[in-house]
Amino acid sequence: MRREGQITFDFMIAFMLISVTVAGAVSLANGELSTANTIDKTARLKAFAVDVRDTVTKVYSIGGGFTVVKDCPIELGKGDSISITLNSSSNSVTVEAVLSGKRYLVVQRLQVPVYTTTSVTLDEKRKDFNVTAVYNAAEGRTYVELE
Amino acid sequence: MLSLSRAQTAIEVLFITGIILLGTAVIAPYYLGNNDRAFILMQVKGAASTACSYINTGVAEEGPEYAPLNPLIKALNYTSPGCIVKGVGEEEASGWMNVRVVLEYRGPLDGSSLEKAVAAFIVGELKSKNGVISENGLLKYGRVSFNVTVEAVRG
User: Fold this and answer.
1) Would the CA dihedral through A76, A79, A85, A89 be positive or negative?
2) Is pLDDT above 90 for A136?
3) Which of B29, B88, B131, B149 has the most other CB atoms within 10 Å of its CB?
4) What are the residue ranges spanned by the domains of chain A?
């Protein structure tokens, strides 16, 4: 008795088993992916914050008139932004990022003094910023600024 | 004659199927319980090492997932305490399982705040991702009730 064009029971069972396995794998992958994404983004931001800190040290030690152009470490899409702040009161660099709706914050203590609080915000259009040292002859000290 | 022998085969098949099903019914709960325990241990270890790498990276992500760990990162001044998962073990208590996680870290951080934060994070992860529920003050996965305790030692 041949019944062509009809799905066999065996096939249905096999299909069900495969569906269950695939659904399990997809849900597992989703969970792992969100963790991996977080770790990837936080690691990049940390490296970036350390990089900015070292750049400030470098610019400060070279002295007035020296500028380093830094590029954004992460591809920024619509609505994403990274703001970098040199804070003179806590003498630290703060990197605050909004990436696909989530906020990330990292602070690094600076090894050299900054005398003014300056800040830049990178977004979809603006992808780099300058770290500049300005020597103030009247006060006899070097200001490091972001612009 | 032919139809009689056919009927006999059917009874034999029924009998054998019955034995197989009975065997499965006896073994399955035990096997599934063991499976649940292994799963819980695996997920707890995974969550604990995620917590450690998150703390070590020292970048705070705002959101309910990482909320228990963020005060810790701030207290550490965004530096790494070199936190690692030293081991995960299970202890049998009366009617439930105690999952013990041992962390090792260095630096001036207060151990009890690390313990509390990581325990809260692990419980949150298990509940949101692995279908673990709270029941009578314990956590429950499948038919296994358990509790997570974190111990932090200075390395």
Assistant:
1) negative
2) no
3) B88
4) 9-146
